[in-house]
Amino acid sequence: MDATEVRPLLELTHRFADELPELCTPWQGAEVPDPQVVTVDGALAAELGLDPATLRSPEAARVLVGMDAVPGSRPVAMGYAGHQFGGYSPRLGDGRALLLGELHATDGRALDLHLKGSGLTPFARGGDGKAAIGPMLREYVISTAMHALGIRTTRALAVCTTGEPVHREDGPLPGAVLARVASSHLRVGTFQYAASMQDPALLRRLVDHAIARHHPAAAEAERPALALYDAVLDAQAELVASWMLVGFIHGVMNTDNTTISGETIDYGPCAFLDAFDPATVFSSIDHGGRYAFGNQPSIVQWNLTRLAEALLPLIDDDQDKAIELATEPLQQFPARFGAAWREGMRAKLGLATERDGDGELIDDLLRTMHEQGADHTSTLRALSSVVRGDRTPVLDQLRDRTALDAWFDRYAGRLATEARRPAEAAEAMDRVNPVYIPRNHVVEEALAAATAGDLAPVERLVEVLRQPFDERPGLDRYAVGAPVGFGEGYQTFCGT
User: Fold this and answer.
1) Angle, to 10 degrees, between the axis of helix 224-246 and the axis of helix 296-315?
2) Which of 5, 153, 258, 448 could form a disulfide with 303 if both were Cys (CB 3.0 to 4.6 A apart)?
3) Which of 51, 256, 277, 375 is catalytic?
4) For the residues 20-34, what does the mean pLDDT come to?
């Protein structure tokens, strides 16, 4: 980008605050003693027309922790409701966060700039409104990896330290604030909150706002609210399928963490699978396994049912008719998710076409991986070696090296029905099966170092994760599963 194209520090609009004032509260971040920017995503800054060096300035640090407002901006704490682990909370909202406003990327896209850990707001629910550096850097690491993997996500623009400690169960930790961007921060819980106000005009304005920002074609439909709902179903089906394909576990799939845009949001107790097991749970607060890896598709459908309930008054004046109209696309969700997931799995297996028996071939591979405790990422990546004629990398993932003998024969037969050459198939597989994901043990090591004052391991990890499909020399430690014993009792935490 030419230097003359770089914008001032930040130029923010306030469309959400203008159009939906009932769903937010004007607010400003807490004063902190020593705000400092410790990391900036330079690539994202460039997409936003921002100068990374300017974003590291003391002036920027004060803005990016919420202390100073950009001239002309209107920072707000956003309101929303939500079902948390199945229980309804009518008033959640940004208890420790702020929407600073909307940025505009160099391609014209409007993107929210949102802070996390910026202090108590009127929506706070008993916490201190602060955040520690570890959880904020976790969001930076994981969201950067998800973007590089091609998965729709909020993205971390910067992390700042505050110069004050926050107190958690492990004692005092360095305080921090995350600045992230997203297509918007509209959630299923936003619609639940608006619907609870019993104001049809407000709900309609929220629907119009969401359509304009995310699904503009819905505006031309006979029933725009129903068309919006249908578009959100598609977006969430594709999103959760993309999670499942890389072994990602969100960990806290409440309705306030389910976006209208179809972007992943709120990387709290999230993690990635090592050994493939649909029952895997890492979140310390998910005692019943509600949000286990294999439950994620059904949970997002449950969340989308709650969205339908909120939208019913705008779908049709006759509630029974509205329920009938919303139920039809909702019942299609498993098929939509399944189609996206099967397409992704065929690509991972090097299958460019769809044939009878593909589902059984995929299911049998995953079942054997589960029985054998095979690493999810390494096993799928190693399949391209099978296509190239070497089964050893897959066999190395198995406890019983004969467990896939019959499957390999079936797989070879299926590959023979494809028109493209094996070398082409293998290359295509390597473009969708990552070598590098945020391995839980490596992430924990990097975050521990950062908490102790050394950010180099985090930055090194992020640079590796920016090219997840390109195997590079000297990076073996980022490509292997957890050491023996690491996964036993491993937990992730929400950071509040």
Assistant:
1) 170
2) 258
3) 256
4) 97
